[in-house]
Write a structure and sequence with these properties.
mainly beta; Immunoglobulin-like; Jelly Rolls; six-stranded mixed sheet
């Protein structure tokens, strides 16, 4: 009995249908899209622990695959979308891991997950009020928490002995959180004893000394980041934090390597480090630097970065007292930095002052002078790229020469899959952009994985990876201008996606019916 199909059509279907099935097996589902990873809750874990971690984001389909930038941490997807079991090995190195989620359609931007060296616990609700504070049994400890709703306040009760000093610090924005946190210490009756909003970064830290045995309550609350016109305390899925509580010495001890307030200024040589404070309005600190060899020198102040309220400025004068250079803010920080070219047997005077003329014992600073060498910087402008089979794609790198650096530099790509090519490119003789061309053959199989760009100094023979900077990048994080300071601010690992080839349409049957 005939099946109703002509023999030539039957033969065509025998060829076409298996081919289509093979293509479908290598294609992502029609509804697949690259994962969007936002943050983790809890945002960190202890060495040697097993944790349930919630991951808001878009994952179609579930689960995505997970890549971690270094060993010791593994993610096991749970049945529920957005939930993982995270295992931290007993031998894992404490620090921050950068995590990516990926599937056949693409990859997420890297996001941080912190690994702590000491004990860690979770914040437990209800703890909104100082009378409902979560009791902390021992210090030191890191508390992983989240402000879940608007006007949320998390409270933690700590027992202190006379003479002890509490060191409380929050990591939040430095972990790409949406929380601009505030810290305060109150009595068990709610009387405020100390508070801090910003310390070395927008994240707070406070150090508080007690003269008697007492119970105190440490509270975390805050505002949305980036800021908004709403003046209410914030709360959201992204308002994550790590509160670190420890006992510490009562106050930092200032070390005066030289008396920088003396007249005439003391004579010093490279390198130099000293600590001091601007104690009275208008006070200046000076040192006279004698240089024996030509080259480049750098002067920098750490004040904001060590929690000081000092907004410092920094100036370099030549041996005749003529100003050579001045700076009061550098690289998005209130702390100044400058460098200049020095000549043999020449004296320079370096001056430190307060921009606002505010002063006091707490307006301390750390000052350093040191040599810097000619060098170069390279920064990738994207953390990932898609390269379709049979096509070419570009990855742009920003190149800069510093302090008269003239050596020839060549860029190459490493760890690419078989068949993918990228010709080495020489860096320009001046600052500029470098375009690296990646080529995939028409038969390139689907691929997802990390690779690196390497910069080779052809004179010194030294190599250095080309990083992607997470600071300043607003890609997929919803923060205009991005983040200024992060615990992990760069990655040398870029990402390559080679999607499956698009299905080939069957050839028409020469008009036959």
């Amino acid at each position: 009995m005939s099946d109703g199909f002509r023999p030539d059509l039957r033969r065509s279907f025998r060829i076409i249908i298996p081919t289509l099935l093979l293509l479908l097996l290598h294609l992502p589902p029609a509804w697949a899209s690259p994962p969007t990873l936002e943050f983790f809750h809890p945002p960190g874990a202890a060495v040697g622990s097993t944790n349930t971690v919630q991951v808001p984001g878009k994952f179609e389909p579930w689960p995505p695959k997970v890549w971690v930038d270094s060993a010791g941490v593994s993610f096991l997807a749970r049945t529920n979308a957005g939930e993982f079991q995270v295992n931290v090995a007993a031998g894992a190195t404490p620090g921050v891991r950068l995590i990516r989620f990926f599937n056949e359609a693409g990859v997420s931007e890297p996001r941080p997950f912190a690994i702590g060296a000491g004990p860690e616990i979770l914040e437990v609700e209800p703890n909104d009020h100082f009378a409902q504070a979560q009791r902390i049994e021992r210090l030191p400890v890191t508390i992983n928490g989240r402000l879940n709703k608007a006007d949320d306040v998390d409270s933690f009760q700590v027992e202190l002995k006379a003479g002890q000093t509490l060191d409380a610090a929050v990591d939040s924005i430095v972990l790409m959180s949406r929380l601009d946190a505030v810290l305060r210490v109150v009595t068990t009756n709610g009387v405020q004893l100390a508070w801090n909003h910003d310390f070395a970064t927008l994240d707070p830290r406070l150090i508080w000394h007690t003269t008697n045995d007492q119970s105190v309550v440490v509270q975390v609350f805050g505002f949305p980041y980036p800021g908004s016109s709403d003046i209410r305390f914030t709360g959201s899925d992204g308002a994550i934090y790590r509160l670190k509580l420890a006992l510490t010495n009562s106050a930092p001890v200032l070390t005066h390597g030289v008396d920088s307030t003396a007249t005439p200024p003391p004579l010093v040589e490279l390198p130099l480090t000293l600590e001091n404070a601007i104690r009275v309005p208008g006070q200046l600190h000076r040192v006279r630097l004698h240089v024996k060899e030509p080259g480049w020198a750098a002067a920098e102040i750490h004040a904001e970065s060590i929690g000081s309220p000092l907004d410092a400025w920094l100036r370099v004068d030549d041996h005749d007292g003529k100003q050579l250079s001045r700076n009061d803010d550098h690289n998005g920080s209130r702390d100044p930095y400058l460098e200049w070219q020095v000549t043999t047997n020449t004296d320079y005077t370096i001056v430190v002052g307060s921009l606002t003329r505010q002063a006091g014992e707490d307006h301390r600073f750390r000052f350093s002078l040191h040599r810097v060498e000619p060098a170069f910087t390279l920064t990738a402008t994207a953390s990932s790229m898609i390269l379709k089979p049979g096509t070419t794609n570009q990855l742009k790198v920003v190149f800069a020469r510093l302090r008269g650096f003239t050596n020839a530099v060549q860029l190459t790509a490493r760890d690419l899959p078989a068949g993918i090519s990228c010709e080495p490119v020489a860096a320009p003789t001046k600052d500029g952009e470098i375009n690296l061309q990646f080529i995939a053959p028409t038969n390139a199989p689907p691929y997802q994985g990390p690779f690196q760009l390497n910069a080779h100094d052809q004179v010194s023979g030294q190599d250095q990876p080309v990083p992607f900077l997470l600071t300043g990048s607003s890609s997929d994080n919803g923060v205009p201008g991005g983040y200024r300071v992060l615990l992990a601010d760069r990655t040398p690992w870029l990402w390559l996606t080679i999607p499956a080839p698009e299905p080939v349409k069957p050839a028409e049957q020469d008009g036959k019916k």
